[in-house]
Amino acid sequence: MSTLTPPQWDERLSQFIDVRQVGPCEFQSVSETHWIPVFGRSVFGGTLIAQSMEAAYKTVDEDMELHGKFLRGADAQQYIDYHVTKVRDGRSFSMRRVDAMQGTTLLFMATLSFQAPEWEQPQFFAPPPEMCREGSFELMEDMPSGHQNVPSKVLLPDMSLSGTQRFQYALTHAPCTDHHYDAMVQWTYTQEHVLPVEFRPAVPTIFGNDGQVQFGSKLAYWLRARGTSPGPANRQRAILGFHIDQFMLGSIQANVRENPVTMMTSLDHTMWFYNHFSMSEWLLMVVENQAMTRSIAVLTHLPTYEEFHVCML
């Protein structure tokens, strides 16, 4: 178990997502070095998403939504610069464009819309899955056309296994000579001691004995920052933006049995935010695989906080 205190986790989180202002609309990552995921080849995409959001909201104090596109891989040993363009400043709506760059290389481009809150307007949300302390969860043998991965029920956080146990069975039974062994050890260490946001599978059938997403499983995860997660609403959104990229790729395996995907990368991210939330509390993320064709997959994530949808990804 990690020995870091909540304030130490908050400091770790700052190194992952914070930017400092270096000009009127110019920002730079506070850290010169950046995390590369165990199974990744470049800087974690969530870093670019979160830091772009942080840079944009420092120029306007309203609720946001984001659409971003990854263009190039980032060098993990260089600062990342964020150039904010004030596209529009209106009474109710504002828009920003953020270009994430290293030197003259454009890494990530995002447009962010900001809206002044209108809390008196009516709201409606589809009900979340039933949250229970126990239940029967089974894999689907076939994935018929039109099937949805959205679960009707999920386990409560205190009844869900820690995400650090994902590869526990595989590490116990696989020989040390297995070509994935060292990667599984490093992944487990990273989840427990490095990443400032923890996750728990809310559906116990998600991961098989090999630690991979199982075909036919429903998909839902619990998320929570390990520290106190201080800061305004838009910072909470940036923290969620950082973590969300971990689940955008592997989840598609729940719908693919033949010709399994061997190489994946995320290109486009869109986030619509509906309500305020705190990443210091458990957030339920329900995943639905909507389509996969021509090597392109479309996934929808619906984070839920206190039974209200807070975002669609």
TrEMBL record:
Pfam families: 4HBT_3, Acyl_CoA_thio. Residues 216-291 form the Acyl-CoA thioesterase 2 C-terminal domain. Residues 35-115 form the Acyl-CoA thioesterase-like N-terminal HotDog domain. It is an enzyme of class 3 (hydrolase). Its EC number is 3.1.2.2. GO terms for biological process: acyl-CoA metabolic process; fatty acid catabolic process. GO terms for cellular component: peroxisomal matrix. Keywords: Hydrolase. Signal peptide: none annotated. InterPro entries: Acyl-CoA_hotdog, Acyl_CoA_thio, HotDog_dom_sf, TesB_ACOT8-like_N, TesB_C. GO terms for molecular function: fatty acyl-CoA hydrolase activity. Belongs to the C/M/P thioester hydrolase family. This is Palmitoyl-CoA hydrolase. It comes from Malassezia equina.
